[in-house]
Amino acid sequence: MKRACRAIVTLALLGAVSACNGFFYQPTQSLGSWPQRKFENVWLRTPDGATLHGWFFPTTAAPKGTFVQFHGNAGNVSWHYEALDWVVDHGYQLITFDYRGYGRSSGYPYPEALRQDALAAIRYAQALPRGSRHPDLVLYGQSLGGAVLLDALGQLADRRRVRLVVVEGTFHSYQEVAASALWRRPVLFPFTGFAYATISDDHAPARAVPSVSPTPLLVIHGDNDSIVPPSFGRTIYALARPPRALWIVPGGRHIDSMRRPEYQARLLSLVEDPLGSMAARAP
After folding, report:
1. Is the peptide bond before 242 cis (omega within 30 degrees of 0)?
2. Whole-model pTM above 0.85?
3. For 43-94, how does the pLDDT look when each residue is reduced to its tens digit (9 = 90+)?
4. Strand ranges inside 46-125, DSSP E
5. How many domains, the chain?
6. The domain spanning residue 88 has which CATH number?
7. How far apart are CA 85 and CA 81, in angstroms?
């Protein structure tokens, strides 16, 4: 009987660990949909030797600037690019890339590796010719991508070209968001505390959020997000220093704001003058 009980507990704990790890990384290697607009394959090299695949969407005229997309935890670029490729129609280039282990990128994902991947993408964008506006880079992280982006920014010394940082549906702590995922699963919620023992917060975005300033930071979160509850977005906003803004999207689900024309227009307006817009709306 004792052995049976130990076996049940062991299986439950393994299930909890699997649930946590699967929550963070769900890569798919095969590319699904292909862009209908013009794009180029790009290959990024990280300092530790990984090769990352991405797509670059150019503008037809001289670009105003460049968006860099840091996508969520599931799939690959082919699942996510449509959330932002519309910016090309408004004069902005777009770079989207796969972390190692995703799509056609080499290696496998883990926190330190994804930090290096994010830095490689930012540096690739910094090496492009400047857009017509200065600063000219918009860094946009979705869900896990927002956490990866914030962690990388803590290691980025030169941010002179970064016009705006956007994080959508993002969390401030790997431990907290894993615990939240376990707590909301009836079979696993008794093991919620196990997340704190098995998940590392060495790369927790909370450590880097205050240092994003003086670069403007926009936090977006749907109030109906069932994957990462909106409380996590509010915490990121609370940790941040000005200039900052928080958009809670009514009825918004997980990272779906940029599929709504009204929020596309709102973002473009903010990109025009981030500092002025955030100062005008500051409490």
Report:
1. no
2. yes
3. 999 999 999 999 999 999 999 999 999 999 999 999 999 999 999 999 999 9
4. 51-57, 65-70, 74-75, 92-97
5. 1
6. 3.40.50.1820
7. 6
